[in-house]
Design goal:
It is a single chain. With 139 residues, the chain is mostly beta strands. It has one domain. It is 10% helix and 38% strand. It contains three helices and ten strands, in the order ααββββββββββα. The strands form three sheets. A six-stranded antiparallel beta sheet has the order 4-5-6-10-9-7, with no helix packed on it. It has a two-stranded antiparallel sheet with strand order 1-2. A two-stranded antiparallel sheet has the order 3-8. Strand 4 and strand 5 form a beta hairpin. The chain is globular. 25% of the residues are buried.
Length: 139
C-alpha cells in the first residue's frame, strides 16, 4: 500500500555544509556489540529522496527511496499510530544524510501530540527481499 509521505520542514532543515554537497554520501558500517559489521546491503540516502512508506505494524516501517530502493526500519519499541498514519516525518541527525539507524528518528502524529520513534536497525533490502514482501508491506 502506497501512502503519501509528508516531511516536516522544521524537523529536516538541519542542513549542514555536508548535506548541501552534491555528492552521494558514503556508506558506513553499523556497530553491533562494539564491533564494526560490514555493510553489504547498506548504503546512505538523503531524507529528501524518500518517496513513500508502508507500515505493516507499529514496530516496522518500509521506506521507498528514490525510484527502486526499499529500506526496512525496525523500531526500538512500539511506535504508536505508525501503522494507522498516512503522513510521517523523517528527522535526520546532523544532516539530511542517513547511513544507519542512529541517523534517523521517525515522527508520527498521535492524538496527544507527535511521537518520536527511535530506530534500532536500518536495512537496505535486496531485490529478492522486496519481491518477497507482502503487498500490504510494499511502499
Amino acid at each position: 500500500m502506497f501512502r503519501s509521505l509528508a516531511l516536516i520542514a522544521a524537523a529536516t532543515l538541519g542542513l549542514s555544509a555536508a548535506a548541501l554537497a552534491q555528492t552521494e554520501p558514503k556508506p558506513q558500517t553499523e556497530k553491533t556489540d562494539g564491533k564494526a559489521a560490514p555493510s553489504a546491503q547498506k548504503s546512505c540516502f538523503f531524507s529528501r529522496d524518500v518517496r513513500g512508506f508502508a507500515a505493516p505494524d507499529d514496530k516496522t516501517l518500509y521506506l521507498r527511496v528514490r525510484a527502486k530502493d526499499i529500506y526496512r526500519l525496525d523500531m526500538k519499541g512500539r511506535c504508536p499510530e505508525l501503522d494507522w498514519e498516512h503522513k510521517i516525518a523523517i528527522d535526520s541527525r546532523g544532516s539530511s544524510s542517513i547511513c544507519g539507524a542512529i541517523d534517523v528518528t521517525v515522527l508520527v502524529k498521535t492524538p496527544i501530540g507527535v511521537s518520536r520513534c527511535s530506530v534500532e536497525t536500518l536495512t537496505r533490502l535486496t531485490p529478492e527481499e522486496v519481491a518477497a514482501l507482502p503487498k500490504k508491506s510494499r511502499p
